[in-house]
Design a protein that fits this description.
single chain, Delta(24)-sterol reductase, about 20% strand, transmembrane helix, 6-stranded antiparallel beta sheet, Uridine Diphospho-n-acetylenolpyruvylglucosamine Reductase, domain 3, disordered C terminus, oxidoreductase, disordered N terminus, alpha+beta
């Protein structure tokens, strides 16, 4: 397939060969005209999904509330312990991991992974690698904040510490992680081994870019501390995006920044074609005059249709400023408040406005409604009566939603629903929006910028070669500006009763990403084969670390951990024994 540049001859050829495009004129100007797709017949699972809210209200929500309360009590109990005691417990638990690894017989025990149940992970990817024989190591005890050091401006935490837990501890000190991922349940380990982003990432980069040091248990049981400038620096750069396939992360030291009590948030409506919406977003991320004083602390965009979006820019503000006469304070974290994405959407009617949001509530603004997925889970969940009476039970715990869905509903979501992130260069955001509109017609879309730094080694993700010479908007000599285009919802054609082939659509999205030097976070369902996986990501440094630190033969490779479909142990073992062809990494 040729590059899907929306203005190119290849794109028109692509549309001519795609059955969903054949009835459309070969142009992308009219984004209001939906694609013509065949009608689909409803089956039993459609009704199971439609009335799933009954199970959610009477089972999932009450159970979630109990689990959240139990976790909160555990966090409070941990915080009451002395720092010395928490560190001692941490060291004891690390030794248990080492002992467990040394009990493994490589000839019969299978490949190593955590003992966490497949449905507990927040990501949508099927954990099919746990459906074959494997050797489990229990990391469930690693959920403590070990130290918050205001002098070094570093927080040392264990991998199962989540964003809600750490912001609860740091915000009262007017400190915060430099990047706080929005959903409370996202864990430090997942954000480092995988992918994490927030509206401050246009300054600090991805979550893994804010890490100071990693404590890792290697395949042979050695415990090492990796930093960017010690003897394990190659491991330090290799861990992000590796999905835990180089060793077990048992603690991390993460950069802290000073903050203020409130976020001064400006909501700016944008109306026009998607390319104009994308340009307005780029201007919010990186003002055209290049004045660093105009760069906000936070940037976020939400695109509500093919012609409408709202850009939000935030600046930290003191309590004194927020409470000045005439300023509006909006505590968005209260259970009865409108869901944040709907509140932001009001800017399209009333125009630009400014308000002050308590900082911690701003960090977790998307938690209650899981961005906008809550609208699908509970169609009436955004109504005032429900928010007032039951909003305190929100959100349902993602792990319980997954545990109660069964294979039929899980497969339905894979085929008829989209949860994908596209990490694209800032200057290609307009192209990405048009591609998603024609391929999936999913709204709202989430826009969040992040720097992709030029590092001493070529990691799995890296900026475009020569970007520093192009002087594009948002780029610097040391980092290229990218954007996460978040695609989370049911395509409009499903609501119209038309067919949608989720697997084929994701395949075309992945090919678009490969051909546009863009990336797909691995928490999502992927359709990539191994060759295309290593066309999207670079394997060289990752494979260097795999062999140097003995991960081959102990931990499965990141591709086989990410790939869709159940695997036999023979397939995994053969893959572990194989040496990746370097041509995969070199292909563009």
């Amino acid at each position: 397939m040729g590059r899907l540049n929306p203005t190119s001859r290849h794109h028109f050829l692509y549309k001519a060969t795609n059955p969903y495009y054949r009835s459309q004129p070969p142009a992308m100007a009219d984004l209001q005209t939906p694609l013509v797709r065949p009608k689909r017949k409803k089956v039993l699972v459609d009704y199971l999904v439609q009335f799933r809210w009954i199970l959610v209200i009477f089972v999932v929500l009450p159970a979630s509330a109990l689990i959240y309360f139990n976790i909160y009590l555990g966090d409070m109990w941990s915080a009451m312990k002395s720092e010395k005691k928490r560190q001692k417990e941490h060291e004891d638990n690390v030794q248990k991991v080492v002992k467990r690894l040394k009990q493994r017989n490589p000839k019969k025990d299978g490949l190593v992974c955590t003992a966490r149940k497949p449905w507990i992970a927040v990501g949508m990817r099927n954990v099919d690698y746990k459906r074959v024989r494997h050797f489990e190591v229990d990391l469930s005890a690693f959920r403590n904040i070990l130290e918050i050091d205001p002098e070094r401006m570093v927080a040392k935490v264990e991998p199962l510490v989540n964003m809600g837990q750490i912001s609860r501890a740091t915000c009262p000190m007017n400190l915060s992680l430099a990047v706080v991922a929005e959903l409370d349940d996202l864990t430090v380990g997942g954000l480092i081994n995988g992918y994490g982003i927030e509206g401050s990432s246009h300054i600090y980069g991805l979550f893994s870019d804010t890490v100071v040091a990693l404590e890792i248990v290697l395949a042979d049981g050695r415990v090492v501390r990796a930093t960017k400038d010690n003897e394990y620096s190659d491991l330090f750069y290799g861990v992000p995006w590796s999905q835990g396939t180089l060793g077990f992360l048992v603690s991390a030291e993460i950069k802290l920044i000073p903050i203020k009590e409130y976020m001064r948030l400006t909501y700016t409506p944008v109306k026009g074609p998607l390319k104009e919406v994308a340009q307005a977003y780029a201007d919010a991320v990186a003002p055209r005059d290049g004045d660093p004083a105009k760069v906000p602390d936070f940037v976020e965009g939400m695109v509500y249709s093919a012609t409408e979006g709202v850009m939000m820019t935030g600046v930290y503000a003191s309590k004194e400023e927020a409470k000045k006469k005439g300023n509006k304070i909006n505590s968005v974290g209260w259970w009865f408040k409108p869901w944040f994405y709907q509140h932001a959407q009001t800017a399209l009617k009333k125009g630009e406005f400014v308000e002050y949001i308590p900082t911690r509530e701003y960090y977790h603004r998307h938690t209650r409604c899981l961005y906008w997925e809550g609208k699908l889970i509970l169609p009436f969940g955004d109504q005032f009566w429900f928010r007032f009476l039951f909003g305190w039970l929100m959100p349902p715990k993602v792990s319980l939603l997954k545990a109660t869905q069964g294979d039929a509903i899980r497969n339905y979501y894979h085929d008829n629903h989209v949860i994908q992130d596209m990490l694209v260069p800032l200057y290609k955001v307009g192209d990405a929006l048009e591609f998603v509109h024609h391929e999936m017609e999913v709204y709202p879309l989430w826009l969040c910028p992040h720097r992709l730094f030029k590092l001493p080694v070529k990691t799995m993700i890296y900026p475009e070669p020569g970007f520093e010479h192009q002087q594009r908007q948002g780029d610097t000599s040391y980092a290229q500006m990218f954007t996460d285009v978040g695609v989370y919802y049911t395509p409009a054609c499903i609501f119209r009763g038309e067919e949608f082939d989720g697997a084929e659509s994701v395949k075309r999205l992945e090919q678009w990403l490969i051909e546009n030097h863009s990336y797909q976070p691995q928490y999502a369902v992927t359709e990539l084969n191994e060759k295309d996986f290593w066309r999207m990501f670079d394997a060289s440094h990752y494979e260097h670390c795999r062999h140097k630190y003995g991960a081959v033969g102990t931990f499965m490779s990141v591709y086989y951990k990410s790939k869709k479909g159940r695997k036999s142990e023979k397939e995994v073992q053969e893959a572990e024994a194989a040496i990746l062809e370097p041509a995969y990494a070199d292909e563009a």
